């Protein structure tokens, strides 16, 4: 729908070194078995839904500490939420309202919590996935999908450098969850992220996370030039900052669907009275060309503000 728009979108972004040499020599990818957590197998073939869809709606939302009331001794700084049933119900109400085909969530405690959320929906998703990441409070990146993933990878163990440095070595604050789908015979890849927050800020770590995520995206594109690739989630930074430049600049440019939301809605987080766009859906040219512009929504309803301190982003992409 938007094939002619890619060339006309103006982005001011710094040119950054994103060669594979910017990462450490170790590039281990952890592949989790389906039996370990989730209702879908990591190496399953795409289901009938994926073969029949001619468009796909994709959403991202930080659901703000969706954690239960039980302590897990394996999580060093875990909180508990005695208001968990009400919080889960509030999140479920919003998920039901928008119901994207694929929803990538941040700040979900565990696979059981994700599955409990799914069970609370009016129309539960057929596939859920969460792989425990690196956050010391135990909040993770999660997937709800009506399309069977063909592969789900975790990059939680990888270590990398900020481009142009020799130390320190960084890892993802949570994870970069790599999800592959076959939808209407097209290869769709989502990289779900939740970068370092600005509490006890470490901007170099957040920049290194962004650079490494872009390296992963470039590697996927090199392996399959026709792949429809998106980086989405809570980047914890606004447009034209170094981490966002690292994700969007270069060849090819990745473009933020959020830039096409109504201007007054173009924010996802309020801090100190300031409205900020820190959550994003960044699509490569092959996917951004298929964006249906009128579908981009960043709603700010009472139901959303009751459930989370972040707004969600949802958009639809034509796969014909």
What do these coordinates show?
The protein has a single domain, classed as 4-Layer Sandwich (Deoxyribonuclease I, Chain A), CATH 3.60.10. Residues 1-48 have low confidence and may be disordered. With 320 residues, the chain is of the alpha+beta class. The strands form 3 sheets. A 7-stranded mixed beta sheet has the order 1-6-7-8-9-13-10. The longest helix has 21 residues, at 203-223. The chain starts with 29 loop residues before the first strand and ends with a strand. Helices cover 21% and strands 25% of the residues. It contains 7 helices and 14 strands.
- Name of the CATH class: Alpha Beta
Radius of gyration, taken over Cα atoms and rounded to an integer in Å: 18 Å
Percent of residues in β-strands: 25-35%
Number of domains: 1
What is the overall pLDDT average? 88
The CATH superfamily is identified as Endonuclease/exonuclease/phosphatase
Main sheet properties = 7 strands, mixed
SSE string: EHEHEHEEEEEHEHEEEEHHE
Helix share of residues?
10-25%
- Give the overall silhouette: globular
Low-confidence stretches are: 1-48
* Structure annotation, total helices: 7
Reported CATH architecture: 4-Layer Sandwich
The count of strands amounts to: 14
Q: Report how far apart the termini are.
A: 10 Å
Helix/strand class: alpha+beta
Lateral arrangement of strands in the main beta sheet: 1-6-7-8-9-13-10
Query: How is the CATH topology named?
Result: Deoxyribonuclease I, Chain A
